[in-house]
Specification:
By secondary structure, the chain is α+β, with helices and mostly antiparallel strands. The protein folds into two domains: about 140 residues, Roll (Urate Oxidase), CATH 3.10.270; about 150 residues, Urate Oxidase, CATH 3.10.270. Helix content is about 20%, strand content about 35%. It contains five helices and 14 strands. Strands 3-4-5-8-9-10-11-14 form an eight-stranded antiparallel sheet. Strands 1-2 form a two-stranded antiparallel sheet. The protein has a two-stranded antiparallel sheet with strand order 6-7. Helix 4 packs antiparallel against helix 5. It starts with a strand and ends in a 6-residue tail after the last strand. The protein binds uric acid (URC). Uric acid (URC) binds next to helix 5. Uric acid binds next to helix 5. Its EC number is 1.7.3.3. It catalyses: urate + O2 + H2O = 5-hydroxyisourate + H2O2.
């Protein structure tokens, strides 16, 4: 929300960040389901008078915004995806409050996973996994909608089938060309769904939750290749593109995907001194793991007919 006041441009929004909520659903057969969400909400509304005239009459108190998260969590009697929860919150804020023209809802789901004991799924036991399911939803009063989902912290590594050759060489270049190295990254993925209004989102329960798992599987499978032979990666850039292309090729309800894949280097270890020129001589075996500095490699891939 922007406005011109005193010859100045004032842009503003308000909301509540990092509202944490846990929700359990207990099936009659004794099986429990659990999610933990960290919710950040931004409301777009004309609150300029609060900034310049000490008039708070258009403000939804951020405390009320926080309380709403708990009320809506209580009202969800059935298990639902983090995206559907975000859309429900956005719908509420834009329809319940006259001044609110749009709501931006970001949620990070903590990766609680059902434990297995002796191979059997536990009815009410969960342990923390690693990568996180995230979403950002923008809902407008008109009912128009943007849904973005993503993965954060998907750490993957291959001990071979990776190289890097043919890059620019100049007087500052020390890096040798190689067809044998470790490649490791922590994938951050973010993809956009094509649904443009609340009425066009699929009614299938847990649709977004299933799609999240599908996308994660395609990303992981493409990174690693088949279990026996793997797949050769000529660069992180090439692997990133293959991963993005696989997702867009497989899921027609995804219009674009952004991938961030830092190159987490594993440096060869060679140790020597004057007496012993090769105490440790690197033979693709002993590495110095580093995450600082790291290569930063990111790209967005969209269908050309997409609106993004
Ligand atoms: O896959 C890679 N891409 C790069 O752009 C790059 N740069 C670098 O030093 N090593 C690598 N590896």
């Amino acid at each position: 929300m922007a406005d011109k006041i005193d010859g100045l441009k004032l842009e503003q929004r308000h909301g509540k960040a990092r509202v944490r909520v846990g929700r359990v659903w207990k099936n009659e057969d004794g099986r429990h389901f659990f999610v933990e969400w960290n919710v950040s909400i931004s409301l777009l509304s004309d609150c300029i008078p609060a900034y310049v005239l000490d008039d708070n009459s258009n403000i939804v108190a951020t405390d009320t915004i926080k309380n709403t998260v708990y009320v809506k969590a209580k009202e969800c009697s059935e298990q639902l995806s983090v995206e559907d929860f975000a859309i429900g919150l956005g719908k509420h804020f834009t329809s319940f409050y006259q001044p609110v023209t749009a709501a931006i809802i970001k949620i990070v789901e903590k990766p609680w996973e059902r434990v297995h004991i002796d191979g059997l799924p536990h009815e009410h036991g969960f342990k923390l996994g690693s990568e996180k399911h995230v979403t950002e939803v923008v809902v407008e009063k008109s009912g128009s909608l943007q849904v973005t989902s993503g993965i954060e912290g998907l750490a993957v590594l291959k001990t071979t089938k990776s190289g890097f050759e043919g890059f620019i060489r100049d007087k500052y270049t020390m890096l040798p060309e190689t067809r044998e190295r470790i490649v490791a990254t922590e994938v951050t993925a973010s993809w956009r769904y094509p649904f443009e209004s609340i009425s066009s989102i699929p009614v299938k329960p847990l649709y977004f939750a299933e799609r999240y798992l599908d996308v994660k599987k395609v990303l992981v499978d493409t990174f690693f290749g088949p279990p026996k032979d793997g797949v050769y990666s000529p660069s992180v850039q090439s692997t990133l593109y293959q991963m993005a292309k696989a997702v867009l090729g497989r899921f027609h309800d995804i219009s674009s995907i952004q991938l961030k894949m830092p190159n987490l280097h594993f440096l060869p270890v060679n140790l020597s001194n004057k007496e012993s020129p090769a105490i440790v001589k690197f033979k693709d075996d002993v590495y110095l793991p580093t995450d600082e500095p790291h290569g930063s490699i990111e790209a967005s891939v969209s269908r050309i007919w997409s609106k993004m």
